[in-house]
Design goal:
Elements: H1 7-16, E1 25-28, E2 45-47, E3 52-57, E4 66-71, E5 86-91, E6 95-99, E7 105-118, E8 124-132, H2 133-140, E9 145-146, E10 157-162, E11 167-182, E12 185-193, E13 207-210, E14 216-223, E15 236-238, E16 244-245, E17 251-255
Parallel strand pairs: 1-11, 3-9
Antiparallel strand pairs: 2-3, 2-6, 3-4, 4-8, 5-7, 6-7, 7-8, 10-11, 10-13, 11-12, 11-15, 12-17, 13-14, 14-17, 15-16
Length: 281
């Protein structure tokens, strides 16, 4: 995983070592054709104590619905979910720092519950907040990012926007891993980035944004750090025939289009809705 960080303590240690968080710094793949309907900013992203995230909505979400925050399952305050474990409607009071377009913190949002969380098949967490989309927009002038309901496409120009580091990474979708195995966990149909997206610890949970549409197509979660095979922090790809491929230095995300059918009225996660294929408890 793009390891969760130990909040302020690690930030202090990094600053003491001369490695400061980059303010709106961007890395970009020189071979990527950038097609932007509008510039990708930090508006709607959030910083967690140990990870990144974003305020997201489904295409059908209403202004009066409680807002949702998207991050990784391995970023949950309860620790890493075990293989096969699914958290659903667990009480939470976790706080999130909401960022504006420039990457400045403009307010604190608070969860009412962990609406959904797992590291099985995907690596995702969804928090339901105490405020609605309309209340957040009224207070801060910031709209939620929309989840794309379609499968992402190879070659798409994307931006990974980390609220924790206030840093963006620009590259493209290089392809998809049939299975991505890391330690005890296995994820399905993972997004593989081109090499320019060198995401680091703390970028876990960042929204992966389609540059052309501004919609969220995936959630950043891991990368092979040392070239090891299928170990923690060194995921490997496994194809339909069981062939294992290790790509040192390459990073990955989990697609989010499959979340959309699971979001029902009032931002409730309903695993019985038509088209919802998220793992069940």
């Amino acid at each position: 995983m793009n390891k969760p960080l130990v909040g302020a303590l690690l930030s202090v240690l990094l600053l003491g070592a001369g490695i400061a968080p980059a303010a709106a710094a961007t890395t970009e793949d020189p071979g990527t054709t950038r097609v932007q309907a509008k510039a990708v900013t930090f508006a709607g992203t959030v910083a967690l104590s140990n990870c990144s995230g974003s305020v997201v909505r489904a295409p059908s979400s209403q202004p009066g619905d409680p807002a949702l925050v998207l991050s990784n399952g391995h970023c949950l305050e309860t620790g890493f979910p075990a293989p096969g474990q699914v958290l659903l409607n667990r009480s939470s009071t976790r706080s999130f720092t909401l960022l504006n377009a420039a990457g400045s913190g403009v307010g604190t949002l608070r969860a009412s519950k962990i609406a959904y969380g797992t590291m099985t098949d995907t690596d995702v967490s969804l928090y339901q907040l105490t405020r609605t989309y309309a209340q957040i927009e009224s207070s801060y002038g910031i709209k939620a990012l929309e989840l794309d309901s379609a499968h992402p496409v190879k070659g798409t120009a994307i931006t990974v926007a980390s609220g924790y580091w206030k840093r963006t990474y620009s590259c493209a979708v290089d392809g998809f891993a049939y299975r991505l195995k890391e330690g005890s966990w296995t994820w399905k149909d993972s997004v593989r980035y081109t090499s320019a997206c060198q995401t680091i610890g703390g970028t876990s949970g960042s929204p992966v944004i389609d540059d052309a549409t501004g919609k969220v197509v995936a959630v950043n979660n891991t990368g092979n750090e040392d070239g090891q095979r299928c170990t923690d922090n060194n995921p490997c790809e496994v194809d339909e025939n069981g062939t294992v491929t290790v790509r040192k230095g390459i990073n990955y995300a989990q697609q989010t289009y499959g979340i959309v059918p699971c979001i029902g009225t009032g931002s409730q996660i309903d695993l019985n809705r038509a088209g919802c294929a998220l793992p069940r408890p």
